Amino acid sequence: MSNQSSRDQQPATTGVSADGQDADPRALEQYLPSLAKPIRVGSFWLAIVLPFLYVPLLVTGLSSSVETGLFLGLLVLNIVVLYVGHSYQQ
Predict the structure, then answer these.
(1) Which helix (H) or strand (E) holds 29?
(2) What is the pLDDT along the chain (90 residues), one digit of tens a residue?
(3) Burial of 40 per CB tally in 10 Å (0-12, 13-18, 19+)
(4) Distance (Å, rounded) from C-alpha 33 to C-alpha 61?
(5) How far is CA 88 from CA 7, 16, 73, in A?
(6) CA distances from 19 to 16, 22, 71 (A)
(7) Of these four, 4, 63, 64, 86, which has the most CB atoms within 10 Å of its CB?
């Protein structure tokens, strides 16, 4: 069993790093090079502005399923734009 090749000893790569994020944070630049910067800029600023839309929903209460769905939709959208815009200005 000591005759294992170096290929058998190396861990397989899945495209995801150990912390769970994509190994290539610049995939957007690879697939949409001309639109990558505007998308990252817009995502960055949208991630800053979106939480202000939570306030009216939370002040009036999440009393209906529509309001709850809207709040959860905004929350998911905020997570997505945070992920896309996190490398803006880096």
Answers:
(1) helix 27-31
(2) 555 555 445 444 444 555 555 456 678 888 888 888 899 999 999 999 999 999 999 999 899 999 999 999 999 999 999 999 988 886
(3) buried
(4) 42
(5) 37, 21, 23
(6) 8, 9, 28
(7) 86
